[in-house]
Design goal:
- This protein is 34% helix and 21% strand.
- The chain has 552 residues and is α+β, with helices and mostly antiparallel strands.
- The chain has 2 domains: 287 residues, FAD/NAD(P)-binding domain (3-Layer(bba) Sandwich), CATH 3.50.50; 203 residues.
- Strands 1, 2, 5, 6, 7, 8, 19 and 20 form an 8-stranded mixed beta sheet that branches. Strands 9, 11, 12, 13, 14, 15, 16 and 17 form an 8-stranded mixed beta sheet that branches. The protein has a two-stranded antiparallel ribbon with strand order 3-4.
- A hairpin with a 2-residue loop joins strand 6 and strand 7.
- Helix 1 runs parallel beside helix 19.
- The radius of gyration is 23 Å and the shape is globular.
- This is FAD-binding dehydrogenase.
Amino acid sequence: MPERTDALVIGAGLAGLVAACEIADRGTPVVLIDQEGEQSLGGQAFWSLGGLFMVDTPEQRRLGIRDSHDLALSDWLGSAGFDRPEDLWPRRVAEAYLDFACGEMRAWLHGLGMRWFPVVGWAERGGGLASGHGNSVPRFHITWGTGPGVVEPFEKRLREHLAAGRVDYRPRHRVSSLKVGDGRAHAVAGEVLAVSGEPRGRSTSRDVVGDFAIEAGAVVIASGGIGGNHALVRRNWPVERLGPAPNSMISGVPAHVDGRMIEIAEAAGCAVINRDRMWHYTEGLRNHDPIWPMHGIRILPGPSSLWFDAFGKRMEAPAMPGFDTMATLKRILATGRDHSWFVLTQSIIEREFALSGSEQNPDMTGKSWRDVICSRRGRGAPPPVEAFKARGADFVVADRLEDLVAGMNALVGEDLLSFDCLRAEIVARDLQIANPFAKDAQVTAIRGARRYLGDRLVRTAKPHRILDPAHGPLIAVRLNILTRKTLGGIHTDLDARVLDASGRPIEGLYAVGEAAGFGGGGYHGYNALEGTFLGGCLFSGRAAGRHAARAR
């Protein structure tokens, strides 16, 4: 006979932690299960940079940023491009999240002890039209402590509930079936996996040592997305919109982020929508010290690196560093190759290169202001960036452009790049640096970025000629497609209740975080504005936990 509990949460990532804490806060007993071990508590949020999309905050106002609900809504809708009948709930969830991001979000998180780096980042700057994709102003608030700093207050609350007996946490429990009938969720069943001592992020054993079955009054699916399952990514790839799926990709998430629970939910009668919407980065590096299979790290670039496709043609706006991820992805894939190149100088890498992830930002993860100042305002690039430059498989460094191009061709094993063509592109760009009336869109963008105090202080190099030896050596970086986020998923309403194929809520069943496209079955639409992934986990987990506790 299955055991019985009031509430069950499947997945101990950020969204699952928030949901479990919200339920337990209201006195309802919760069982929390996850296929990974306790070392993976917090899921993908732990590995993140901790960026949160918030609107009209004190951090923005101190930097002279004028933001508003109306501006944020315009940016979101222009980016999302909602155009399907099933986008009704995703759009409503997006609008509700913006109300949250403009309202109580910061105060709620601040009350839990979270703080933010004083320089607000300007991510996804857009595709060129006010009505189109992109952030009109900086909104990317990096949590002090990065991803672990986001997880910390919820893990602390969870452990308090564990000590009080309100939460029963069971790692290494993998769900294999979900029972739904008569319009409500009844139970889950699955396997108990062998205990694994592998460190967080590494692949773990799938040896089965037992089974389980649990009936629950409320079930919350918080199992994550599909980014670690390249076969499923390719199966869902939007060929008509982006072109053929890449032959070669690297992974921004561990292998256990496999989409398995989404398929189990669909088999049980839950609606899954927008499965062709996904978010993959174009600035991926092969990790020189990998943790999970095909482990990739994303460069968070400033605006000055020159971006070339695999054949050495400079990419045109909006395919510029930090501006429009999806347009750039489409542009790269149109070449028939999976890689592209940054060409830059030592002066640019020192000021403009940051790497995504908590482990690549030990200064901010460790909450050390001294280390931040020494790392980001001292001589040289931050140590993790210099480590990639020295040991990464994707870097070429040379004093002369001839040697740089030869090294780039050697790295890919084909003479795809012409020295004369690459030099002509760089010289033409360099001529625009001394021209106050520059026609080059990227040069104009650099000058615009430096009008923002935050970029001028820590994220944008002083404009200079790429071929000026005073700023050398020259650096080329081969960029790979990096899998990351699932923008579609289980269809839900504003309370995170799962909907069936006819659009009716399934009683007692909820889905949150990436499993639900971060809310509604895809509240980003076609494009993300960044900081909205963790934000969606917080928002949807909170909504599900509060509704599930009230419904009991």
